[in-house]
Amino acid sequence: MESIKCLIIGGGPAGYTAAIYAARAAMAPVLYEGNQPGGQLTTTTVVENFPGFPGGVDANTLMTQMRSQAAGLGADIRRGNIVKADFSSHPLKLFTDRKEELLADTVIIATGATAKYLGLPSEEKFKGMGVSACATCDGFFYRKTDVAVVGGGDTACEEATYLASLCRKVYMIVRRDVFRASDAMQKKVLETPNIEVLWNCNTQEVLGDASGVTGVRLLRKDGTVFDIAVDGFFLAIGHHPNSELFKEWVETDEQGYIVTKGKTTQTNVPGVFAAGDVQDPDYRQAVAAAASGCKAAIDAKIFLK
Ligand code: NDP
User: Fold this and answer.
1) Is 134 considered catalytic here?
2) Considering the domain 2-114+239-304, what is its CATH architecture?
3) What does the alpha-carbon distance between residue 210 and residue 281 come to, in Å, rounded to a whole number?
4) Number of neighbouring beta carbons within 10 Å of residue 144
5) Ligand 1 centre from 227 Cα, in Å?
6) To bridge 21 with a disulfide, which of 42, 43, 220, 297 should be the other Cys (CB 3.0-4.6 Å)?
7) pTM of the entire structure?
8) Whether the Cβ atoms of residue 259 and residue 241 lie closer than 8 Å to each other
9) Tens of pLDDT along 259-274?
């Protein structure tokens, strides 16, 4: 059994930033990176909106640098997963996929969220080559082209209006004949001249070639199959916060996002903090996740005192 002062779960911007701060605060952090070291950002290419990189930065490079910075400051970064948590007593108990038992004084949950995809093989094939689940991250690369957004919720409407400011034309692919989004967001979409809503449509296939996405094949509810030509295909059908492991102990909202107290990262369990997308249904940006990782390390330091 290993005793740890500060255990960080998750190797995305929130986890690595928490590790940087915790290492500098002499908390001897141990970070488990999980299955996707680098987090969601590694599914994109160039990041142009992370401050400090005027020419943009390759997403994998950015995450590797954050990791090296944390390791260089003394964080113990480990490959592997936490597979079970027991927060019924303090110190907090956690179990790894190698069946090791860890006893932690503080835990920072930074397990992120996973964008939902449709599950089509063609969508998988063109991920990062025209298929994206983040218009704010990747929209800029499709300036003055035609793109499609799948979904009819607030995210889809927000992403479609954002893309409409950059792109020539935005198709919204909506599977029913109504939006799920709020009235205000719907109004905004319907008043934007270069957005065309394709109601009652489901995506059959993402079309493309060696250069990436070239179009989408759609099936309308009346049985009509038709193609649209687009360079970008954006999914906006929701996210899953990766909080399942902790739900027995930590309070989550109706969508599964971990609830934190006020401006802090403190959960309902003393000594357990949450940072990044696992507790943030709204902003979902790398820089916002990094900032909350910083807050979690500071909150954990105060708790240890
Ligand atoms: P939602 O769950 O609200 O909407 C998902 C949308 O995707 C729905 O239109 C849904 O269709 C559609 N969808 C789901 N699965 C599929 C599929 N397999 N194929 C095609 N379409 C599919 O998710 P959001 O991410 O939009 O929003 C999450 C939460 O965050 C909401 O509470 C939202 O209000 C909130 N939010 C608020 C914002 C704001 O206030 N500014 C901005 C963004 C989000 P259907 O309706 O048929 O189920």
Assistant:
1) yes
2) 3-Layer(bba) Sandwich (3.50)
3) 35
4) 9
5) 24
6) 297
7) 0.78
8) no
9) 999 999 999 999 999 9
